[in-house]
Amino acid sequence: MTKLIVICGATATGKSGLGLNLAMRLSSVILSADSRQVYREFDIGTAKPTLAERKLVPHYLID
After folding, report:
1. Dist. CA 35–CA 3, nearest whole Å
2. pLDDT tens digits, 13-61
């Protein structure tokens, strides 16, 4: 059975960092549900993961 872990919370509370660390520890991926990160070239004010972070862990629904 595949498990889904959901991380949610208020803005600027460390959700992205927690998700990245958890995904690396579990050899998993990140599926973004952010309403703004889905857009290409809409980087300012969205706190999108860096390219280095995206290389560490596969991210989906970003850009």
Report:
1. 23
2. 998 899 999 999 999 999 888 767 666 776 677 778 888 999 999 999 8
Q: Which residues pair with 59 in a beta bridge?
A: 30
In contact, 15 and 21? CB cutoff 8 Å: no
**Taking the domains of the chain in order of start, what are their residue ranges?**
15-60
- Using DSSP, state whether 15 is helix, strand or coil: helix
28, two tokens: 């998993």
Rg of the Cα atoms in the chain? 12
This prediction has a pTM of: 0.78
- Say how far apart CA 53 and CA 18 lie, in whole Å: 12
